[in-house]
Write the C-alpha cells for this entry.
Amino acid sequence: MKRILKVITLGLALALISPTVMQAQLFDKGDMVISAGIGLGNSIFPLGSLYSTTLPPIWIAGDYCLREDLGPGNLGVGGILGYSTVKWGNSAGYKYTGFIIALRGTYHFTDLVDKLDLYGGIDIGGKIINEKVYGGYDPGVYSYSVLGSGVLVEPFAGARYYFTDNVAANAELGYGIAILKLGIAFKF
C-alpha cells in the first residue's frame, strides 16, 4: 500500500511540475504580437443617461519582445490605437469622436501557466476628442465641452490565452479607450 501511495504522489508531483518545466515561453525575444478587438465600458466619454454609443471602442495594439530574462519575465514595447463615437441628445445634439494613440511598454510574466501570457504595462500618448453639432441643435450661449483632448497615461493588466502557437484570445483591464478590452491576438 505504501508503494502505491508513493507512486501516486510522485505521479501527481510530476504532473504539476512538468507543464511549467517543459512549456515553451509565449513571448520570446524578437516575437511580435498584434492584437485587435472591441472595448466594453467606454472610458473616454462620461456616458450618462443622454449619451448613447454609436460605435463602441475598437482598438489595435502591437507588442514586440525587446528583451527577455529580466527577472521572472520579458520586456515588450509597442503601441496602441483606439477609436470610439458617442452622441448626446436624441434627434439633435452633439456627436463626439474619440481617438487615442499611445506608445506602450509591457512586462510579461513567463512560465507561470501553460498557454497563458500574463502581462502588465503602461500606455503613454494622447487622446483627441472631436465635437460636432447635429440635427440643427442650437447650443446657444451654453456651448462648451467638458470633454477635451489631452495626454493619456494608462496603466493596464492583460492576459492572452493561446489556442495555437500563434493565435490567442486577448483581454486587458485599463481605462485608455475602454475599461475592458477583448479581442484576438496573432504572434509572428
In short: The two ends are 51 Å apart (CA to CA).
